[in-house]
Amino acid sequence: MKKIHLSFVLLCLLSVQAWAQIRYESVNYYGNGITEYIEMEIIQTPEYTYYTSENPNKRIKLLWGFEENEIYLQFPGDEKKYRWLGNDEFGSSITCLHPTGNGQPYLRSADPNPPFKYLRSKNPYTGSVEELKFNDETFWYRSNKQTAWVKLRTVRKERPEANNYGYDVYFPNENTAYQLTFLEGMMDMECKNPDGSKQIFYNTNMVTVK
Questions:
Q1: Which end of the chain is more exposed for a tag (fewer CB within 10 A), N or C?
Q2: pLDDT score of 2 more than 50
């Protein structure tokens, strides 16, 4: 893996995205045909994961920190530091600077299977536990009374009154919108139901409704 430095400004830009997941790849750097990946997932603070095309299921959570306003990454139990060096303001490419001084190029790539993000709410009126999951701006819904996931028609909407954005979602064969809006911090969402009542869906990594 190369040593990477990412500018402090770029980190600040990335850290305000909602549930952002960004993947970088370095193809055949060592001439062995192996592609190395580093995924950066931003929930509240960044998390970095390393894996390779040779063993994609062996994922290593990396340690990270700042040194002289630069991000460095470390493998667990290893003192060597790899610096993330951003090559442009958009984060489209990274140079990973190894402890040896060699620079390994990583390019930002699209994840063909973006992970689902989950939100959960206990309905204050019915007492049921409700859950949403979404990726690629498509939402699904289920509850402890209806455990099968239902795909919702999803329309992105700007919410100028909340200085934010969200989504109008519709159940199949229905034209009544449930208005979802990101709250401050871009973690949780407020749902305005068709009857005007509101409830909060909280970000959670849980994948089952209890």
A1: C
A2: no
